[in-house]
Predict the structure.
Amino acid sequence: MKLTGIKHGNTIELSENPNIPDGTQVAIEVKPVETMTIEEKLEKMKEFLERPWEGREDFVQTMAEIERERQIAYEKKLEALEK
C-alpha cells in the first residue's frame, strides 16, 4: 500500500484511511513529493481546512500550543520595549 501525507511536527496526516487498526506498527519510507505550484498548494490547504475536525485532536492541540508560544513571545517583546 502506498499513501501520501502531510507532516505536522512529529505527526504525518495521511491523505486517506489505510484501513488498519489504531496502534498497528508500520514501516514508513519518507521522501518529499514533487514541488507543487502555489495554486496546487492553496487547493490542498483548502481541502485540508474543509474536512471535519474529528480525529484531528493532535493537530488542534499543536496549533493551540503554537498560539500559546506566540503569545508568550509577543508579551516578552512588549515587556522588553517597556523597559
Remarks:
- The beta strands are 5-8, 11-14.
- Residues 5-82 form one domain.
- The chain has a mean pLDDT of 88.
- Residues 68 and 74 are 10 Å apart (CA to CA).
